[in-house]
Amino acid sequence: MKDLLIQFLKPITLLTITFTITSLFIVYFQPRPRPGGAGGGGDTIMARSFVLWLHGLGDSGPANEPIRTFFTSPEFRTTNWSFPSASSNPVSCNHGAVMPSWFDIHEIPITAASPKDESGVLKAVQKVHAMIDKEVAAGTNAENIFVCGFSQGGALTLASVLLYPKTLGGGAVFSGWVPFGSSIIERITPNAKKTPILWSHGIADGTVLFEAGQAGPPFLEQIGVSCEFKAYPGLGHSISNEELRSLESWIKTRLKSSS
């Protein structure tokens, strides 16, 4: 079975289960060989691009690095990848236990109406923006920068791309949620509203409920942001190889060539 299914998670077990999910990436999500290989034909010169991956609660950046091996298309030969780790902080939903966390989470499962740590989210957004700014300063076109994240990292992805002042290549949210209220809308610039969003969510998710994911597209539609929402029947709080293949295709069609 290709999809990893996690149901009925208890808050105190999140850390252990997150590490289990990551280790299973290596086993289940190795790319299949493709005709032509990574050095495939075509005379198009791809410009430098950047993919920033934000992990979930209790996880780490390096543990998610196997994801990059999934992107075998020639278009990704000039892609720079980054898998940062969150600092360790007390997390309310785990009874104050200290673990890698981008911001505080008050309850599990997360619903559309769950309380939000907006101040913590905004502090985390500043860190993500600093990473993006560094890549732009290194010469990467902002429209070739893609921010992606799973669960808590997905929520941070959404906040980061919406609050970045420039148009980015895109933001990909996996099993995430909207981590702030409507008061944030006035801070979103016209350029940020042009950044497209890919949102993927498992219908069987028992940690970030599907209803929390479903609340995303209406919120984005309200502010004029394009969102492609994909629902995956039978998928729990995890990422499937089908989602990653979809992400590869989605990014590939948005990469800009060298001028």
Descriptive overview:
By secondary structure, this protein is an alpha/beta fold. It has one domain: Rossmann fold (3-Layer(aba) Sandwich). It has helices at residues 14-28, 118-137, 152-163, 210-214, 216-223, 241-252; strands at 49-54, 79-82, 88-91, 97-100, 145-150, 170-174, 197-202, 227-232. The strands form 2 sheets. It has a 6-stranded parallel sheet, with helices on both faces. Helix 3 (152-163) links the parallel strand 5 (145-150) and strand 6 (170-174). Helix 2 (118-137) crosses helix 3 (152-163). The protein is globular. Mean pLDDT is 87; it is low at 1-43. Residues 48-253 form the Phospholipase/carboxylesterase/thioesterase domain. The chain crosses the membrane at residues 12-29.
Offer a concise description of the structure.
This protein has 6 helices and 8 strands; from the N terminus they run αββββαβαββααβα. It has 259 residues and is an alpha/beta fold.
Features of this protein?
alpha/beta; 259 residues; globular; six-stranded parallel sheet; 6 helices; 16% strand; Rossmann fold
Describe the protein's topology.
Layout: H1 14-28, E1 49-54, E2 79-82, E3 88-91, E4 97-100, H2 118-137, E5 145-150, H3 152-163, E6 170-174, E7 197-202, H4 210-214, H5 216-223, E8 227-232, H6 241-252
Parallel strand pairs: 1-2, 1-5, 5-6, 6-7, 7-8
Antiparallel strand pairs: 3-4
Helix pairs in contact: 2-3
